[in-house]
Amino acid sequence: MILQLNLAATIAVAGRLAWKKAKPVIFRDEFLLPVVGFVGIILLWWVVALANRELMPTPTEALIANLDYILNPFYERGPGNLGIGWLLLASLRRVLLGFGLGALVAIPLGFLIGTSRPAMLAFNPIIQIFKPVSPLAWLPISLAIFNLADPSAIFVIFITSLWPTIINTALGVSSVSKDYLDVAQVLEMPRWRQIIKIIWPASLPYIFTGLRISLGIAWLVIVAVEMLTGGVGIGFFVWDEWSRLNLSSVFLAVFVIGLTGLVLDYGVGKLQELVTHRPGSVK
After folding, report:
1. Per the database record, which ranges form the ABC transmembrane type-1 domain (predicted)?
2. 207, 102 in Cβ contact below 8 A?
3. For 41, 174, 245, 248, which has the most beta carbons within 10 A of its beta carbon?
């Protein structure tokens, strides 16, 4: 009897494991729970919209009003009348330029701070002073320097994306085990080789964490900057549609901005996995 019960329990456990591996994606928690959360947000939007019928559209009304933008994202119908795809690409260009320039400066500077105490003492006060400054506070300064909206926006992205990458790179470099460096010195390994073979691989997870945070901040800031500077971009689109009291398009822009931020973070995470051979995670 006991043997039969054990056999039945083993079969049941094996059956559950087999179903867990073989069941379709739509029945897995990784799919179902995000869908439940998203549906909850849509329902909340619907309730709030029904309570504010004069101004706020329901999800179905917003979808119908934005069908042209969704089905034709890259249309060109005259000066300033562009599809949301072109606006998104314009914003992405500014973000990637500012973020890329920031990474080129931040990673070497973080290495210098992490490996040199005098450099840390020299740069740390500067970082602590400028890091809390609001990104938009840099906009008047950048406009005074460049006198043009586009390079001013790129400069704001550059300056605000520096700090997370510098701090995380310096932390990663300074966190390398001293035992590894002592062994390298015993083996008379040149300093440049220590950096390439020991410090760089050990600090890569920290560097990518800084890059992911910086990219998130850059994408967050560009929307606010474009609202103030105008021109072609997803941020100015939000402000322009709000000026026309067209909340349907504002909701579309919010969804596009959020989805783009998710894709950018996912892309950097996958790049981190490819380079470090470890799962990417934001600390």
Report:
1. 88-268
2. no
3. 248
